[in-house]
Each structure stands twice: as C-alpha cells, then as structure tokens.
Amino acid sequence: MNKNKIFLLNFLILIFISNVCFAKNKNVPIQVNSDKMVYTQDKNVVVFLGNVYVKQGKLNLWADKITVFFATQKIKNQDIVTAGGNKDIKKIVAEGKVKIVKEDKEARCGLAIYWPETKKIVLEKNPILKQKENEIQGEKIVFYLDNNSLEIFGNNTRRVQAIFFEQGKGIQSE
Fold first, then answer.
1. Domain of residue 109, CATH code
2. Residue 71 is part of which domain span?
C-alpha cells in the first residue's frame, strides 16, 4: 500500500472524532457514506460529495456535501498535515440539506460549521431545532459546547420564533 493510501485510511478514521455532533464514546465506530470522496493534499482538505450520510451510535447526519479542513505544521519548510485527533481538524463544514438527528432531537439547516478548537457549532441558512413538537428557529443558531449553551439570532427580516408545548401534551387534532 503506498503512503497516500495509508494516509487516506488514517485520515478517514480521524474525520469525525469530535464530541460535538457524535457520541462521546470514541469506541463507537463512525460510518461515512457518500457518492464521492475527494482528498486534496496541498489544501489539507477531504470532501465528501453527494448523498452524504454519517452515523455514529445514535447520531445520524445527512448533507449534500461535507468538507473537513485539517491543520498543517511547518516542518523543515514543508507543510505537513497533522493527524491524531480533534486538534488536528481546523473546521468541518456540512452544506446543503443538512439534517442532524439524535433520538428525539433534530436540527435542519442549509449550512453547519464546527470548529473543534473552540468547540462551537454554527447553523445558518434557515436553521430549525426540533424536539418532539417543540420547535425553535432563527437566522443563525450558535452552540457553545464548553458550557452547553446556545444562542439563537434573528435579524430585521427573520426574527427568532419558538413554539413550545407543555410537557406531556402534543399537537391537538381538530
């Protein structure tokens, strides 16, 4: 096996190790399916294209495209892709019909960006969060994983909208 194939194999294993969207148990395997995968060594980027589906434990993620940007280090005047965990991933971007489902929780948007170093996720392009019948949406949703909090932003044309039901009660049929 040549060095590029070995690197790609290791690369795939490291891709979605972040605790952000996936199970906290790193022993749970990550399955990535897509129509196409492109690795660009000079840009330190892996792109999964077409009907992308990622599963780890109870978490499921769908998108049209997922791009993983890796960090580099200067070693003897050469850019070297680092490998070995979350600190080596600069950013993960999911684009196009993004849907994240874990148990009864669901997030949908057109663009999701995750920065492992700051443990922050941003959902944009019509983000909606749902849990059972409850729903909240805005212009942008930001998750801060370090302190388990979130902010939902509106703007002049799209205000934050929340629909909550009392616990144990759902949508009434007429």
1. 2.60.450.10
2. 3-163
